[in-house]
């Protein structure tokens, strides 16, 4: 007997082994786990830069912290997250909580060396966050369904839940800071992480890529997948350029607003409210993804989305001293990011092999981390950083145009081949040369031989 919370399509199935209810349970357990993960991620999001400044740390040193963070994500994070295909993806998601707690705890000590060391577990946690959670979902989904539509909606709903959590905690962080100081959001994040780790351990099933495969074999097969399918490489370059932009944006959006002295939003700038406004724009973008995905191919509409991102990030170039226009441009960029998140997950589910999914996804992160490290180590002025934002978003758009063309060409070739098979007829020069052989149930031909 099916027991549901209601008769609607969105009801939660409590006891039913049907594929539909299994997918509903999968969606809800994944959404709840991601809710607490996103809450922990974004509680301190608007105040990382500010708390460093409150400790008397200058911009050059803060950028050095981010260099260590990205270096950790590139080397240690890529290796640890790739191991999840063998050691288990649920276990790796729990490890995310452990590493992020270490990072948040480091802010209790206002010493440069300790804060620098704290960015190392943050980098490892980031690599797990960006790859393993999604790999776990796609593998679990494929255990129960091959329907890409249901996966599309789970990815969209995940983005919506994460954005809602982020908006809520961004507003909460504003009040926490006003009441208890800059350290309060980091303490609250630790609490969310403990809840997340407990929930995932109790409700998520374990899955692997190929747990009998050695880590070296997994790394080798991941390289072969990139070598053999240039569409994965194009997808990787596209995500690398765009996400490199997002990482630099995450560091520099606060000083970009602080340096603007005309058309003031408020003095002092309410960073928590500004962050919440950007996340609201991201929420609207994720809703737009659901509409776009019903009517257009993902590769097609993402071309325009990357154009919007470049346009939004170009505002500080033309109006560097105007807070309100810059904020509006940032909101347009966040709208594009809201579309990008579920769209990129859907594209990865289509192109990347499941057995080595986490490994390949971590390979695809390498170019973006190298780009970010290069930009941070160069210590560019903000005006140059603004140009780099637009340039990398434009490169992402070009890569998506090439991927769209490659996919359309591949589909056209497949359609022609399929049509040729359907229309195939044997070439007979003379109808008298046709030898008809009837096979009976004993395996003999009709003439008895």
CATH C-level label:
Mainly Alpha
Q: What's the helix-strand series?
A: EEHHHHHHHHHHHHHHHH
Strand-pairing-aware structural class: mainly alpha
| Spatial gap, N to C terminus | 58 Å
The number of distinct β-strands equals: 2
Poorly predicted runs of 5 or more residues = 1-12, 424-449
Percent range for helical residues? over 70%
Number of domains: 1
- The gross shape turns out to be globular
Keywords: Membrane, Transmembrane, Transmembrane helix
GO molecular function: molybdate ion transmembrane transporter activity
GO cellular component, one term: membrane
InterPro entries: MFS_trans_sf, MOT2/MFSD5
Overview of this protein structure:
- This protein has 16 helices and 2 strands.
- With 449 residues, the protein is mainly α.
- It has a single domain (17-421), classed as Growth Hormone, Chain: A (Up-down Bundle).
- The protein has a two-stranded antiparallel sheet with strand order 1-2.
- Helix 10 (230-259) packs antiparallel against helix 16 (382-422) and helix 11 (271-295) crosses helix 14.
Summarize this entry quickly.
It is built from 16 helices and two strands. The chain has 449 residues and is an all-alpha fold. One of its GO terms (cellular component) is membrane.
SSE blueprint and pairings:
Layout: E1 3-4, E2 13-15, H1 19-42, H2 48-54, H3 59-82, H4 84-87, H5 89-105, H6 112-144, H7 148-180, H8 184-203, H9 215-228, H10 230-259, H11 271-295, H12 298-313, H13 315-318, H14 323-351, H15 357-378, H16 382-422
Antiparallel strand pairs: 1-2
């Amino acid at each position: 007997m099916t027991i549901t919370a209601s008769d609607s399509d969105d009801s939660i199935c409590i006891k039913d082994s049907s594929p539909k209810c299994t997918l509903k349970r999968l969606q809800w357990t994944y959404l709840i786990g991601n809710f607490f993960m996103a809450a922990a991620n974004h509680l301190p999001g608007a105040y990382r830069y500010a708390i460093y400044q409150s400790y008397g740390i200058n911009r050059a040193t803060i950028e050095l912290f981010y260099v260590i963070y990205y270096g950790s994500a590139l080397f240690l994070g890529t290796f640890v997250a790739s191991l999840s295909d063998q050691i288990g993806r649920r276990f790796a998601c729990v490890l995310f909580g452990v590493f992020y707690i270490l990072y948040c705890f480091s802010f209790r000590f206002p010493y440069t060396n300790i804060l620098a060391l704290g960015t190392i577990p943050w980098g490892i946690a980031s690599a797990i966050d960006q790859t393993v959670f999604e790999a776990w979902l796609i593998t679990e989904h494929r255990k129960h369904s091959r329907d890409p539509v249901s996966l599309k909606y789970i990815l969209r709903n995940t983005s919506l839940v994460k954005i809602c959590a982020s908006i809520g905690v961004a507003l909460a962080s504003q009040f926490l800071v006003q009441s208890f100081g800059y350290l309060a959001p980091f303490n609250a994040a630790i609490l969310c992480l403990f809840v997340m780790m407990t929930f995932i351990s109790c409700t998520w099933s374990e899955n692997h890529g190929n747990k009998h495969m050695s880590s070296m074999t997994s790394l080798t097969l991941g390289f072969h997948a990139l070598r053999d399918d240039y569409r994965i490489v194009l997808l990787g370059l596209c995500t690398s350029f765009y996400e490199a932009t997002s990482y630099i944006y995450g560091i520099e959006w606060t000083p970009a607003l602080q340096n603007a002295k005309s058309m003031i939003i408020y003095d002092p700038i309410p960073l928590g409210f500004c962050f919440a406004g950007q996340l609201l724009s991201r929420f609207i973008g994720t809703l737009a993804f659901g509409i776009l995905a019903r009517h257009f191919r993902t590769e097609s509409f993402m071309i325009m989305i990357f154009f919007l991102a470049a346009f939004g990030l170009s505002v500080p170039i033309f109006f560097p001293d105007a807070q309100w226009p810059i904020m509006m441009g940032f909101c347009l960029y966040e709208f594009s990011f809201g579309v990008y998140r579920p769209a990129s997950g859907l594209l990865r589910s289509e192109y990347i092999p499941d057995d080595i999914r986490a490994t390949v996804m971590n390979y695809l992160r390498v170019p973006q981390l190298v780009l970010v490290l290069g930009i941070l180590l160069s210590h560019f002025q903000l005006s140059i950083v603004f140009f780099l934002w637009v340039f990398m978003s434009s490169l992402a758009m070009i890569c998506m145009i090439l991927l769209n063309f490659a996919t359309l060409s591949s589909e056209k070739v497949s359609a022609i081949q399929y049509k040729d098979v359907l229309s195939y007829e044997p070439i007979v020069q003379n109808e008298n040369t046709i030898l008809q052989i009837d096979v009976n149930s004993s395996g003999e031909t009709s003439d008895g031989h």
